[in-house]
Amino acid sequence: MERTTEPVAAAGSPDAVGIVSVPACTSGAVAADTELAASQKAEKRMAWSSEQLSDLFSTFWEDIESNNITLSSVHEKMKVMKHSVLSSLDERKIYDRL
Fold first, then answer.
1. What span, in angstroms and rounded, lies between the C-alpha atoms of 27 and 24?
2. Taken in order 59, 60, 66, 71, is the CA torsion positive or negative?
3. What are the CA-CA distances from residue 76 to residues 46, 67, 79 (Å)?
4. Which residue range(s) make up the domain with 91?
5. C-alpha angle 96/97/98, rounded to 5°?
6. Residue 84: CB atoms within 10 Å
7. Dist CA 38 CA 93 (whole Å)
């Protein structure tokens, strides 16, 4: 990592100036770090199919309309839905999507 020197005020003396070595930061390095973080976040996100979304909204439409979505309500509905496209999904992922 490239290092640069910058003048700074020395401790205890407002007029004194010292030299401190600090790492140089380039915009390319920051952009690379930001791009890496974004790609890692995208890898963790689940892609929802149109069939899953359709099933999700038809199943939870009343809860969505009443603005009453809780993890326990998702859990209760998922116990009943054994043959749904959503049955293979984690309840927390469903709740987060809602």
1. 10
2. positive
3. 23, 17, 5
4. 50-97
5. 90
6. 16
7. 20
User: DSSP label at 91?
Assistant: H
Do 65 and 38 lie in one domain? The reply is: no
Query: What is the chain's alpha carbon radius of gyration, rounded to the nearest angstrom?
Result: 26
Residue 21 pLDDT class (50, 70, 90 cuts): low
Are residues 54 and 92 part of one domain?
A: yes
Which token pair is 26?
Answer: 């380039």
Write out pLDDT tens, residues 34-89. Answer: 666 665 555 577 888 999 999 989 989 999 899 999 999 999 988 887 777 888 88
Say whether both 32 and 70 belong to one domain: no
Query: Are 62 and 87 found together in one domain?
Result: yes
Residue 2 backbone dihedrals phi, psi, to 5 degrees: -75, 140
The residue written with tokens 């791009």 in the block is 35
- In a shared domain, residues 57 and 30: no
Domain count, the chain: 2
pLDDT at 26: 56
